[in-house]
Design goal:
It is a single chain. This protein folds into 4 domains: about 40 residues; about 50 residues; about 150 residues, 2-Layer Sandwich (Nucleotidyltransferase, domain 5); about 30 residues. Helix content is about 55%, strand content about 10%. A 5-stranded mixed β-sheet has the order 3-2-1-4-5, with helices on both faces. Helix 4 crosses helix 5 and helix 5 packs across helix 6. The longest helix has about 30 residues. The two termini are about 40 Å apart.
């Protein structure tokens, strides 16, 4: 519209004031637009351009694996005052979209014996502090040299991967090696920790059970065939598959080992977790316990508020129909 007003003056001699009155806009608005055109982009435009650059840079630094919530958190850490909706809009305009995760292939082989540990979690994947509840699982890594197997142990308090092990053979020895690494990282004194897993044969095996008994670890298991009973571990391995395994085919076991170890280090030190109020696992563990509790309480409240908003929206749609 401002361009039209300017054109009326240049082409037909219509005064700016007359054109502004006829179109119902203020002269001050028109002259502000005119000055901006002569002086170049204003502060708002410069900020917008800087924000776009920051969003694009953060997206590519994380190799296209993060959506607007995590990108927003990273920008706020860098000093930007910006909302998730604004970041989401910029990403949509630039066609920056993290690919959605898909359900991973289940490689669990149930144990043949009768022994099963009780499910102490009942799908409650929270913990009041570190080294209260751990979880574990495994997956198969395809390589040109043949399958490589990974087992990992995660602390449910901070989502930190405490231990992991890789081998060409899947079994109790691999799961035990992952658990032993976690115990060593925590200094050896972990008696009373609950370790939750599925009912895979490596976790029901007598050797693994004896290892847990020696370390004072209490086993817990979900039901056969229910991924939701070990959802926290499933989430970790889904992220691994989405962010690394589907993007980088491995020629050798050594190549896979190096890439996976680097990815886990990034997961622990750089990846922002919504469970940790957008802190990485290592960062969150270093916070004062009172700060941890306050952040967790705020995160739970936001989650509950979001749930209520969705429920209200569903109710409104149902009423409208």
């Amino acid at each position: 519209m401002a361009g039209f007003i300017a054109a009326q003056r240049a082409e037909h001699g219509v005064a700016h004031a007359v054109a502004c009155r006829a179109l119902g806009v203020s002269q001050s608005w028109f002259y502000k637009w005119s000055r901006r055109g002569r002086e170049g982009p204003g502060e708002r435009e410069r900020r917008r351009a800087g924000l776009i650059e920051a969003v694009v840079s953060a997206f590519h630094q994380r190799k296209g694996t993060e959506g607007s919530p995590r990108i927003t958190a990273r920008l706020r850490r860098a000093g930007w005052r910006v909302s998730k909706n604004t970041v989401a809009k910029v990403m949509a305009e630039r066609a920056l979209a993290a690919r959605p995760k898909t359900k991973r292939k289940n490689t669990t082989r149930p144990g043949r014996g009768r022994w099963r540990a009780e499910d102490h979690l009942r799908r409650d994947f929270t913990a009041p502090g570190p080294d209260v509840t751990w979880c574990g699982d495994g997956t198969e890594i395809p390589t040109a040299e043949g399958a490589l197997y990974l087992a990992a142990t995660e602390d449910l308090f901070s989502r930190r991967v405490l231990g992991f092990a890789m081998s060409a053979h899947k079994g109790a020895a691999l799961a035990t090696a992952s658990l032993q690494m976690a115990v060593a990282l925590r200094g050896g004194g972990v008696a009373g920790v609950r370790f939750h897993s599925d009912q895979g044969s490596e976790y029901t095996a007598a050797d693994f059970r004896r290892a847990c008994e020696r370390m004072g670890i209490v086993q817990s298991m979900g039901r056969v065939g229910s991924a939701l009973d070990n959802a926290a571990a499933e989430s970790f391995f889904s992220s691994l598959e989405f962010e690394l395994l589907r993007r980088e085919p491995f020629a050798t076991h050594d190549q896979a080992r190096r890439a996976i170890a680097a990815w886990i280090d990034d997961f622990n030190t750089m990846r922002l977790h919504s469970t940790n109020a957008m802190f990485s696992p290592v960062e969150f563990e270093r916070l004062d316990p009172s700060v941890q509790q306050r952040l967790r309480a705020a995160a739970r409240q936001r989650k509950e508020d979001k749930r209520k908003r969705k429920a209200a929206a569903r109710h409104e749609r149902k009423e409208a129909a």
